Description:
single chain; 72 residues; mainly alpha
Amino acid sequence: MKTSNRILLAMGLFALAFIVAMTVIFCVKGAVPDTLIQYTLGAGGVEALLLAGIKISKVRAGKGGEDDEEVP
């Protein structure tokens, strides 16, 4: 498994666990920490954006992407 796929899997699992935890907190307390949610999910978005930028630069340089999709 590629490193980028591992990072994306870890980010997805963390986001899922975080959302479940915030749902439980909402059910128990009746309120959620909005700022914590905003910054946590925002940081995940920035990480995904950076991974996309790395992938795009590799494809443009011709060093990657061959095994992701079949090019006609």
